[in-house]
Amino acid sequence: MIKRIALTAAIAALVLSIVPEAFAAKGGGGKGGGGATTSSSFKLVLLDSTDGYAHWGQRVTFTVSTSATSEPNVSLTCSQNGAVVYGAVTGYYASYPWPWTQTMTLSSADWTAGAASCVAKLYYFSGTSTVNLGSMSFTARA
């Protein structure tokens, strides 16, 4: 009987740890261990655009909103022809020690011109795990 209770508790804990990630990745809400509903969103902000599109060499940032954590992070990866040409990671919270990294310039030594496909991911750390809250794709034009 004790083994059955322990197994049931383990399965319940596993379900509670998986379900929030599945819902959050879709931009919906999930229930955490305390039963609280969480929501997350983030939006690309174009700082230099004159036409409403991201372009090579321009600066971008993100507005982030989440009730899942007090320390959300965003990673941005851009690729040309399948090769990664730009990567950046930054935190969007008050105590983040490198706040200037929240403004990202769409260029690098490997990305000297041209358009690129970009993917941004919103996530946070929970112990040694990374919890994904959502992602978005956009094209940085030439």
Protein topology:
Elements: H1 2-25, E1 30-31, E2 37-38, E3 40-46, E4 59-66, E5 73-80, E6 83-91, E7 104-105, E8 116-126, E9 129-140
Antiparallel strand pairs: 1-2, 3-4, 4-7, 5-6, 5-8, 8-9
Helix content range of the residues, please?
10-25%
Average pLDDT confidence is: 82
Low-confidence residue ranges = 1-33
Number of domains as seen in the coordinates? 1
Q: Which sheet architecture does the biggest sheet show?
A: 4 strands, antiparallel
Distance between the termini: 65 Å
**Broad shape:** globular
Helix/strand order, N-terminal first: HEEEEEEEEE
Q: What is the CATH T-level topology?
A: Immunoglobulin-like
* Overall number of strands: 9
Structural class computed from helices and strand pairing: alpha+beta
Please write the CATH class name. Mainly Beta
The proportion of residues in beta strands is 35-45%
* Gyration radius, rounded: 18 Å
Number of helices: 1
Strand order of the largest sheet: 6-5-8-9
For this entry, give a set of tags.
142 residues, alpha+beta, Immunoglobulin-like, four-stranded antiparallel sheet, 9 strands, disordered N terminus
Question: Can you give a write-up of this model?
Answer:
The protein has 142 residues and is of the alpha+beta class. It has a single domain (2-140), classed as Sandwich (Immunoglobulin-like). It is built from one helix and nine strands; from the N terminus they run αβββββββββ. The protein has one helix at 2-25, and strands at residues 30-31, 37-38, 40-46, 59-66, 73-80, 83-91, 104-105, 116-126, 129-140. The protein has a four-stranded antiparallel sheet. Strands 3-4-7 form a three-stranded antiparallel sheet, with no helix packed on it. It starts with a helix and ends with a strand. 19% of the residues are buried. The model is unreliable at 1-33 (pLDDT under 50).
